[in-house]
Amino acid sequence: MKKYTGDRIKKDFQRNWSLYLLVIPVIIFYAIFMYKPMYGAIIAFMDYTPAKGVSGSDWVGFANFTRFFSSPYFVRLLRNTILLSVYSIVFGFPAPIILALLLNEVGNKKFKKISQTVTYLPHFVSMVVICGMIKDFCLSTGLINDIIAFFGGERVPLLQDPKYFRTIYTVSSIWQEVGWGSIIYLSALSGVDSQLYEAASIDGAGKWKQTLHVTIPGIMPTIIVMLILRMGSLMSMGYEKTILLYNSAIYETADIISSYVYRVGLIDQDWSYSTAIGLFNSVINCALLVITNMISKRTTENSLW
Amino acid sequence: MKVKKSTGERIFQVFNYVFLTVITLVCLYPMWHVAVASFSNSNRLMSHTGFLLKPLGFSIQAYIKVFENPMILKGYLNTLFILITGVFADLVLTSIAAYFFSRKNVLFKKPLMLLIMFTMFFSGGTIPFYLTLKDMHLIDTRWGLIIPFMISTYNMIIMRTSFEAIPESLTEAARIDGAGHITILVKVILPLSKAILAVMVLYYGVSIWNGWFWATAILRDREKYPLQVVLREILISNDSQGMNAGAVGDAEAVAQSIRYATIMVATVPILLVYPFLQKYFASGVMIGAVKE
């Protein structure tokens, strides 16, 4: 354990002063754009008005939080946020792993290459354009309804009906990210020791057993790290896409905490209240990350820290 | 040793190829649909239902309308300004940070790194961030889309990992010759880091090109709108009717093909550089995956 004693600090500064000088802009950057907003979050406990500023505004304790918890939207927002997150973990998280496993079994190099290139593609199309396309395809005269009508179904404007939002959101997210997400697993797969496969096949293990007992344990550390990271951004995910896709007709299922913060804060300019909601969200996020990391450390010995 | 495949394995192989082909087509088709529809005759497009395999007729009417919209060109210019300035500033500050954190025997490296890593998992939130930009007089400026986003901690860590892999003997040799840190960074480290710089240009570039949220949040003046915000008005807020001066009956039909042409104009440039950048994807993700 290093000790920050006066003597060591002096020596360190003598040796590295020019290095510290160089890094000052970086420290200023983090101080202003990361730590100042964290300090600024104390307006969640105030009745903040820009005219009075942070120092002049009155403290109100937890009033903004209780206002949120007793608001008629609280249950709806929490339910929508959690459900959308659960959907994206349950369906969205395994999808790139499965794609990587399948691509890994492809012997034809050319086919594999084309398949990869095409599936990465949607990741590079901007969110605004993706959502524009989704909106278009979901119109009652759009492509998806053409297919539904072809099979004898009835045409419905899909993005006007609360029933369909979560499905549209989840399916389109998988479409967007499945290829890009598979890269990391493919590189993990290429790192699995080929001797293990030989040993397994000498022991008479078929392809399926090899996958189960060699491949999956081999990429498990990667899977766990990705899962922990995913859990840590669970509650903050998806606000850009939600804001682009939703409309007041489907708030019932589509409005999530972060999109509500955007409306109440940036549009209605209810600063303190929206900061409180955002802070509530951040704290849950952080807690989820710590808990997942802890569980994973205990059970699989993989962890972020 | 050639192992004979069992029937089950062969069935799996067939299934696998079929399945992956379907996935590939599903990923490709929406783009294809948009491309083909943008060149189609707008009236025929309106009455058409189902998949589109080739253009219905041929018309560049929609593209003419798109380029007649001055906002598209302005949006492009604004985006280019933010992209070029932003990526340059991002690279400068990120490589300085990565350089610092890749040095050995620096006493305060660890506590500083912890403070930085903490920001990856906890933040003040959207509103305090916005109010900070306001305090810094960055509201309604294009710099407000550049300066606050100069370092992405994730990218910085990737870069640091790559700098750490450069043999110390090289930087030591430069030091003995009396080179300062800036000289070592610029003359020794960066020339050896072309691959990681390409990855950084890709990551920062894509996020600036695609960014719209903060642009909508801080820009008031329409003259400063980057492309994505203009696109949002056209594609999401359904503003395209306002764009075409055509007869009322045709308005809706033209509007749809204009939307498709707009998507093309905004997306094709990215897809054109895409093949050149593709070889760097995997390396970037792989370096990023290296654990602490």
Task: Furnish the topology, listing elements before pairings.
The complex is a heterodimer of chains A (305) and B (292).
Chain A: H1 6-40, E1 46-47, H2 53-56, E2 58-59, H3 63-69, H4 74-92, H5 94-104, H6 109-124, H7 127-138, H8 143-150, H9 165-190, H10 194-202, H11 207-232, H12 239-245, H13 251-254, H14 257-267, H15 271-300
Antiparallel strand pairs in A: 1-2
Helix pairs in contact in A: 3-15, 4-9, 5-9, 6-9, 7-12, 9-11, 10-11, 11-15, 14-15
Chain B: H1 7-38, H2 42-47, H3 61-68, H4 70-102, H5 109-121, H6 126-135, H7 153-164, H8 168-176, H9 181-189, H10 194-210, H11 213-218, H12 227-236, H13 240-243, H14 248-289
In brief:
Chain A has 305 residues and is an all-alpha fold.
Would you mind describing this structure in some detail?
Chain A has 305 residues and is mostly helical. Chain A folds into two domains: 1-34, no CATH class; 74-300, Orthogonal Bundle (MetI-like fold), CATH 1.10.3720.10. In chain A, 74% of the residues lie in helices and 1% in strands. Chain A has 15 helices and two strands. Chain A has helices at 6-40, 53-56, 63-69, 74-92, 94-104, 109-124, 127-138, 143-150, 165-190, 194-202, 207-232, 239-245, 251-254, 257-267, 271-300, and strands at residues 46-47, 58-59. Chain A has a two-stranded antiparallel ribbon. In chain A, helix 3 packs across helix 15 (271-300), helix 6 (109-124) packs across helix 9 and helix 14 (257-267) runs antiparallel to helix 15. The radius of gyration of chain A is 25 Å and the shape is globular. The longest helix of chain B is centred in the last third of the chain and has 42 residues, at 248-289. Chain B has 14 helices and no strands. In chain B, helix 4 (70-102) packs across helix 7 and helix 7 runs antiparallel to helix 10. By secondary structure, chain B is mainly alpha-helical. Chain B is globular, with a radius of gyration of 25 Å. Chain B has helices at residues 7-38, 42-47, 61-68, 70-102, 109-121, 126-135, 153-164, 168-176, 181-189, 194-210, 213-218, 227-236, 240-243, 248-289. Chain B folds into two domains: 7-68 and 238-289, no CATH class; 70-224, Orthogonal Bundle (MetI-like fold), CATH 1.10.3720. Classes of the chains: A mainly alpha (305), B mainly alpha (292). At the A-B interface, helix 1, helix 5, helix 6, helix 7 and helix 8 of A face helix 1, helix 4, helix 5, helix 6 and helix 10 of B.
